[in-house]
From TrEMBL:
Residues 1-23, 110-156 are annotated as: Disordered. It comes from the Bacteria. It comes from Pilimelia columellifera subsp. columellifera. This is Uncharacterized protein. Residues 14-23 have a biased composition (Basic and acidic residues).
Amino acid sequence: MTNNKGARFAAMRKAQEAKQKRDAERLVRERKVEAALAEFFEHTATVEQIEGATAARVAKVTAIGERKAAAAEHLAAVALRAMLDLGETRTAVAELTGLSLAAIRDAVADTGPAPASPVEPGPGSGRHTREQERQEDDTGDEAPAPYWEEGGDWQT
């Protein structure tokens, strides 16, 4: 029976070594899974941060674009009003611009008569100056100045 004790001891030792090897391999695998999971969470958080920042930038650029478009649309309406004030008929203006009579009527409805001389907005006037627009606009786009701001006079 002494032989059996030695064989049993050798078998137990061999079993423990196999289990330890398996446990060590499992531990290495679990650490790799944990590292991959941490990478996943890190990069997912980065994606969310980038998407949030991008959405904020898109909203800012969209607001700037909408404001510029509205200003340009108003200036176009003022130019239409100027043509009407110079004696052109709405039909003639429609032919020259390619707009419908209804579009001209709608565009000039809120403009009122053209000013005798354009006035630059002063401090506290509620309007942005071109310099203020350049400072808050990070797109680098700048709309060209209307004819009358370049020194021209539509009334001559």
